[in-house]
């Protein structure tokens, strides 16, 4: 159509072979390039997380009693770190559902792209954003008076547990994006984020809930991570008599691994099943 | 099979729950030609394209694209096809150039060649000026052209176009048609699905009419039109008393027996593909002073094809009485 394409020698179109790592790398680049072009959703997500922290710290904070009489904000932040990991799932679900709906997933499937690469890239890109989110939240916490008292090793372990939980939740988010298509999926995920967070030990002691509810809260995967990181950060928290409450660090490792073991294969199977 | 068939489908069957989307679908498309798959929604056009482009597994039958079996050698097929679906499959947040670089790298061209190829294609599809704009700012026609460019990155042997002009205005449609013609000139084999006879007419060398999951008729656009009996001229006379004179004149001018609808004062006649038939008819009526209230030259529609081939209407919409 234009003379310009005639003047330059044609590009050699001999392709290389499909490769999981290279294809994932390309798709991670795509995720990052997208964010740079359109950072709105990320900024909104970060702003929302900061707002929630400030709301709890300054609005509800005065009315809430910390067990053992410690600093409320020190008590608050581990729960907040974990909540922000939960709030991020909808971004993952949206991204996966959008690619399906727009036909981008079909285009990738019609190309010689390693079949695991789109999901792997989604998980990695969203983990990168999780690190940024956690970093911003750490700074917010420090700004309102939260401190980690457990030493470098324990602090890093706590951050690792928080990110491990996010990694597990990302696979839940990917699966949900693949299963329930369109806007309904996103709304469902966003609706579930808050109850999932409140039905834990993040804000209220499970021992103050009705027995059955308290048991659910104690066994909530979020409670395990919140409880374990409170210990590692040296922040005040509430123990509990339940077996779960006595073993938060163990569960904080086990729960995410179980979630990954369930939802990663489910997601891959679901992706393969797109071929009918 | 001969070596020169770019697409071969034999006895394809695909079942969704209790319904066969494809039920004995056969197709052969010679290399370097454009085949139009014509049929209504739900006929199986998209299902066949999805199977041939390795997106869907087939239940029964055998399909080869560019010489490779879609079931056993899907990656070989994928390196040799381009797919352009009903809706542009692009990353809306990225620029046109970034989209092409992304897909070029996913075709494993490497970063450098992917970039060069993107520039080349943007030029060729008239998108160089908009290269750095995000796709979300593109018009419908521009999106389709970018989508086509993305399907052309490896200069594929076979290009699948699934209703490529759905939802486009006439200008956008012409832009896409022009691009497709350009690709065909370079030797690409094209399988085009469409619901519009004129689109198939514009682009296809041969047309396969699809209904209920199988190909029920096949031929060049002219073949199919001839089977339809070509165009019809419909004349509405101003006064009912002129009907008899009009029928006589029209019979003579069109050289065929007209049908008469007395209530609507309408005389209609088949005119095949005679250029100037309309002028002849109007002159003949003018010569005997029969005033004409309305006149129309009606081209065959997809509905007519279906009515003719299957004895029932393609569309679910009611035909005006």
TrEMBL record, chain A:
Belongs to the ABC-2 integral membrane protein family. It comes from Micromonospora saelicesensis. It is a multi-pass membrane protein. This is Transport permease protein. One of its GO terms (biological process) is response to antibiotic. The lineage of its organism: Bacteria, Bacillati, Actinomycetota, Actinomycetes, Micromonosporales. Its main location: membrane. The chain crosses the membrane at residues 42-63, 75-98, 119-144, 156-180, 192-213, 248-269. One of its GO terms (cellular component) is ATP-binding cassette (ABC) transporter complex. It is found in: Cell membrane; Membrane. One of its GO terms (molecular function) is ABC-type transporter activity.
Automatic annotation (TrEMBL), chain B:
Coiled coil: none annotated. Keywords: Antibiotic resistance, ATP-binding, Cell membrane, Membrane, Nucleotide-binding, Translocase, Transport. Transmembrane segments: none annotated. Pfam families: ABC_tran (PF00005), DrrA1-3_C (PF13732). GO terms for biological process: daunorubicin transport; doxorubicin transport; response to antibiotic. Residues 7-237 form the ABC transporter domain. GO terms for cellular component: plasma membrane. It is a peripheral membrane protein. It is found in: Cell membrane. InterPro entries: AAA+_ATPase, ABC_transporter-like_ATP-bd, ABC_transporter-like_CS, ABC_transporter_ATP-binding, DrrA, DrrA1/2-like_C, P-loop_NTPase. It comes from the Bacteria. GO terms for molecular function: ATP binding; ATP hydrolysis activity. Belongs to the ABC transporter superfamily. Drug exporter-1 (DrugE1) (TC 3.A.1.105) family. This is ABC-2 type transport system ATP-binding protein. The lineage of its organism: Bacteria, Bacillati, Actinomycetota, Actinomycetes, Micromonosporales.
